[in-house]
Amino acid sequence: MNSISRIVLLFIFGSSLTLQGQSTSITADEILKKVDANMIADTQIVSSEMIVYGKRKSRTIKSKGYSRGSDKHFTEYLSPEREKGTKMLKLEDRLWIYSPATDRIIQLSGHLLRQSVMGSDLSYEDMMEERKLTDIYTASTLSIEELDNRQTYKMELLAKVEDVSYYKRILWIDTARFVPLKEELYAKSGKLLKKTSLSEVKQIQGRWYPTKINYKDMLKDGQGTDFIVNEIIFNPAIADRLFLKSTLKN
Amino acid sequence: MKLALKLAFKNIYGAGLRTILNVIVLSFSFVIIIFLNGVMDGWNAQAKKDTIEWEYGYGQLRHKDYDPYDPYTILDSHAPIPENRPDLTPILIHQASIYPEGRMMNIVLKGIPADQQTLLLPTSHLNAQEKQYPVIIGKRFAASSKLNVGDEVLLRWRDVNGTYDANTIYISAIFDSNVPTIDDGQIWMNINNLWQMTDQVNEATLLVLNETSTPLESTLWNFTSQKELLSTIEEIIATKKISSSIMYILLLAIALLAIFDTQVLSIFRRQKEIGTYVALGMTRRKVVGLFTVEGSMYSILALFLASLYGTPFFIFIKKIGIPVAEADQEVGLAIAERIFPIYGFSLVIGTVIVVVLASTIVSFLPARKIAKINPVSALKGKIQ
Fold first, then answer.
1. Please, which pLDDT band fits residue A13 given cuts at 50, 70 and 90?
2. In the prediction, which pLDDT does B205 show?
3. Dist. CA B133–CA A42, nearest whole Å
4. pTM value?
5. Is A218 on the interface with B (CB under 8 A)?
6. Beta strand pairing status for B186-190 and B105-112?
């Protein structure tokens, strides 16, 4: 599964969000449609690097991911040697991993989903969230703020159902390019748990797209994990066989 | 028989150094068998006592889905506490993570009433009013997490619906228990706090019985008796006993081999004497008996020698105990810093019977040859 796509998909909104407490001519619906137009494609192929920063040294993990919609993702890890050949397949709410070292396919469930993805600050569970944010959060706009010399809409999302991982999220969305630039995830107590920063926004195939994402577990020391998009192709043709469990061993 | 004993004593007294060596080696066997088994019995008794006092109580009622050996069952194993049963101590188990010095450690969070009296856990420290979440941890976990009394550390957990929450906990006490299964990777807090944190009010994963408790008839809770809970410890110690027995079996085998060897040599060298006994009217059976008594006399002498130096040794060790290396205390079993051996009556008597019986048998085996000896040839000193 493509981690970059997953992170980006966390920003997908459906509809019916309205900006509150801020006099602005654009509605939340319009903002999010524009965000969708930038970030979402029917299919995507992404070549990326994940840089995991450790205390002594960092590791770079290269992968190529294929996705169709929000529920079908296939990722093959290309390097380093230890991870080469590892494949992940996510179909709706199920996740399988194939490891060439053991030549076995494992379905991750329960407690295993809370483990870190290859030592990064991202857990498998973070990648598994399927529901649209509009289904589980009530959104409001807090303000328009400047972030890294860009004007952004600062939006707050509060859980409206009980079974969500994060009670509160705060998002910053570029007012001109309609690209999310930052997200913060909070615990019920108000403690900041995770922070995502998106940068190096480039125009690709007529869309604005962040090509660098830093994902940081705020309770842990360290610089977090960087995702760097080396190449992204929107709406290519992807063979159906890639999204079959049997493909993992081939 | 009196004659046989008298002759046997004279003969082994006459054997000199050979007798001394046989008796010394056999006495070592006596002492080591009693000592090692005493240590194991002491460990067994101490492990059971500590585990009852700190963890098992007088049996447990576990949620029907809870498997202590499968952490994946923790999430769904909780149910409302039975009503009108103040004798039961509820424990709610929940998974969480702490972040000491910015590194993540997965832990098991256990909620227990602060006023419980069933277990030795110092739960009164969970009432520290000045802090929101006072907790207690064991000495092993304190060492591995490098946490001390008074430290505050960030705790992250999920409520019953899976929503993340985080807050600071305060280490109000570190307890010193020999039972690692209530210590390693575990944090104990007031069950009222855990109920509020996880939205699992009045629920528990397991219930500990006290000495007045009676089992509960319920489809939600499975009763595990104290005996069943302790069976694991007994099985482990029984296995350990077998492995430690190799040492004293070897020592005993050497001693018995020496007696056997002595007997074979005696019968070979004392053919004229055997012939004389038979010629003087002793039946072959009596002569075999004489040689067998001679052999078993070694074990009697060894018993006296062993009691001479063994008794003060046993008393001394029982008083000071055997120190256990720190590494051995981390193996997951209840082991105290010192094990105090228990020398039970059955252990001592059993050892005496085994050694005396074994030395009698190995004395008898070569003596059987006497029954086949031709007395005339024996008198002539012909080797048969």
1. very low
2. 95
3. 48
4. 0.75
5. no
6. parallel
